[in-house]
Amino acid sequence: MNDETPICSAKGCRTTAAWVLAWNNPKLHTPDRRKTWLACDEHREHLSHFLDLRGFLKDTVPFDQWRSPEDSAEPAAAPDPAGRQGPDAP
């Protein structure tokens, strides 16, 4: 792993991320804004469920297929390779 390796956002996980979970909190963000969490295969379902229960989850995309805003007409934030800390994972 190096500084460019995408890391899962689940708390305490240091596994390479395989998924991008695009989300937005409608109380805080404009409808076109996309925040991202990264997920490994093990934590994808847990993190997706956490976001979906709150109505935040907008899309789940394999990391290697995620397109940055420059590549797409739809605005989205590029995932942070270091990952953002999501909720506690089992």
Kindly summarize this structure in a few lines.
The chain has one helix and three strands. It has 90 residues and is an alpha+beta fold.
Explain this structure to me?
Helix content is 11%, strand content 18%. It has a three-stranded antiparallel β-sheet with strand order 2-1-3, covered by helices on one side. It has one helix spanning 44-53; strands spanning 19-23, 35-39, 57-62. Residues 73-77 have low confidence and may be disordered. The protein has 90 residues and is an alpha+beta fold. The protein has one domain. It has one helix and three strands.
Explain the layout of strands and helices.
Elements: E1 19-23, E2 35-39, H1 44-53, E3 57-62
> What's the quaternary structure here?
single chain
In order across it, which strands form the biggest sheet?
Answer: 2-1-3
- Beta percentage is 15-25%
Large-scale geometry: globular
Distance between the termini: 23 Å
Largest β sheet strand count, sense and barrel closure: 3 strands, antiparallel
Instruction: Spell the H/E element sequence.
Output: EEHE
Helix segment count?
1
Secondary structure category: alpha+beta
- Total domain modules: 1
- Low-pLDDT regions: 73-77
Q: Over all CA atoms, what is the radius of gyration? A: 12 Å
Percent helix among the residues?
10-25%
Number of strands: 3
| Average pLDDT metric | 83
